[in-house]
């Protein structure tokens, strides 16, 4: 069986695959197929992404002028809170793992499914319950604490829907724990014969590291948010000094999860980039083991740097020094990845399809995001830029310029595998370009704004900050268009796109050696792996 | 030059130039690295683009030497930044012994300050040039953060504990004071200004004498009395609490003048000039029903002239409503 040999023989329109094996709503809602669950997630998080995006648009509109013209103070505070909560807990954290990871982890390691298919389906239901709580909070008045839920504001001063939001985030956290557990067990126990640890695709390494962070970190945020709810409802003193609590304790607990959460968002994206860069340059990855191990190093060091969010909070100078030096250290494995991706292009045979454009964009934007992280790790400098737009710009370079570019690149790269259709290439390249330009116009001016001293979470601001804010808002409208386009043409391609072969990119990796879309059982026969990952150029005939 | 173009904030404290030097060093470092990466990406993309399907990549496994180089060199560079910035941080955290002391209390949504010599201020801080000033901060409710961009300092004001910050101003002028930690509805209006004065002017100000710089308790020239009162009302941050929204900390003042006000103790009072004046100078004397006694006194913060302007402005909010 070698599907890459002659895909036409398979007569894809009549072949049975995971999409046409069964019809009807229950065949989706009760599915245990990891590929269908991935699609359930895709639909859910896409909805949340556009909802969060609408809030972002409203924020940027309000900031077009120095006064409060579009919305008032309370509404603005709810907008940025709900933008953050939805984008982080309901879009970015699940994005790549729950959609691409769910779809690809079994395919890439030659397995039939994840280790616990029912747990996988349960994770989507738990996510959905969480999302419904989140939406309930949004549509019954909203919440205004900021996604950071800082106490004692969240526990004693806010009049908004804090508890439903917290319950929502709590549920969403459990859904990612389920996914993380599933990945770890699957990667340990279900690799195809011959697929040793150092033959694993880097996408798998990235998801392995991410899963470790998820299962170690998420319980802490669940406990922390639970304590906020307990203090808010029962007035038991935990964080509010008026009740005998300690507000700095909240920050320690919160950032213990929420800093590693950044790596939950970016590591899977890095995994995507490694797959895409190698495929479109027809090269082995440069320094495979360094790229693989750096994921684990990031996961480990990422747990030791949370205090860099608290340099001006009143934590001790000695603690600040330790957190600072560790924060510089965690930058190194990320830098190593960037260097290795760049070196991978050297003497390659490079082509520029849309996934590659997203990957190259990722490298550029992530580099800027990472370097500006050094500004924030630098103690004396952080005192000035902390809680200003500099921070806003920095983490959007990581989470939007990094994580979302990787997500979109991955969606395009594996779209033929997922849907069995090709997307329109020219339009996709155009939209990658629009996203890149729009993104930079939106967020680069914010670095300057931040150093000038414009604080975060201000709906009115001194007039001298207006020019840069106008640039940022202009960029946001371009960025918005860049995000709408793929949504439209990918939906279009489902019906009208040309049918995809099994391996349209001529990529290595087991997922490309089964049909597009794959059959429910993924592989007709368990594949046997006999070579290193990224063994480009792809040989014509591979016998499994 | 960059300051005039609006790309850099004013440098008005002793540490500002060190912070900026570190900033520029990191910008330089970032520029070299990002241009290096971008340059390599572009060069490789052009040089090794696939011209035909027959093009073959040259497979390279990796290079331990290169990996070590690009691990160790960036690590070394970040350690330089660490030592430099830690040094600056320790300076920022250690106030000189001879510093003037100012107590700072953040509350939703205003800054209350008091000089050790006794003079109090709201949303404004007057300091002398060339003299270290130490702030001891706390909060009455939620976390706030005292941020003066021109001084490159920021410190959270945390309820239940005291934090400190210090600066020494190097240039006279008026600078932004922001609350940098999100604190609720009017977070963006929890702003004020720091006025840096010549030492002699500061001493005169401290003694409470009229000086050319002390304009705070009186509106500008050429305004009508109502306009001057409105300006003062805004400057003192009255509107952050006295707003017509649910959850506001103080009652709205629209239509108050001349009306019967229900008090917490069950009585009522007619809101005349005397009651308005009393409420500003001794807010706890007669609390409006449904509100907490959270308003600070403005005794000593508003001159008699300013008080008349304020009262006139509040009266104007009731015009056209009948009395």
What can you see in these coordinates?
The complex is a heterodimer of chains A (544) and B (323). With 544 residues, chain A is mainly α. Chain A has a single domain, classed as Cytochrome C Oxidase, Chain A (Up-down Bundle), CATH 1.20.210.10. Helix content of chain A is 65%, strand content 0%. Chain A has helices at residues 25-29, 34-62, 73-92, 95-108, 117-139, 153-157, 162-189, 202-234, 247-281, 288-301, 317-345, 354-377, 379-385, 389-419, 425-452, 466-496. Residues 1-10 of chain A have low confidence and may be disordered. Chain B has 323 residues and is an alpha+beta fold. Among the domains of chain B are: 100-206, Cupredoxins -  blue copper proteins (Immunoglobulin-like, Sandwich), CATH 2.60.40.420; 225-316, Cytochrome Bc1 Complex, Chain D, domain 2, CATH 1.10.760.10. Chain B has helices at 16-47, 64-93, 199-206, 225-235, 238-241, 273-281, 304-316; strands at residues 100-107, 110-115, 120-122, 124-128, 132-139, 144-148, 153-157, 163-168, 173-179, 192-197, 260-262, 268-270. In chain B, strand 1 and strand 2 form a beta hairpin. In chain B, helix 1 packs antiparallel against helix 2 and helix 4 packs across helix 7. The longest helix of chain B has 32 residues, at 16-47. Chain B is elongated and about 90 Å long. Chain B starts with 15 loop residues before the first helix and ends in a 7-residue tail after the last helix. In chain B, 37% of the residues are buried. The chains are: A mainly alpha (544), B alpha+beta (323).
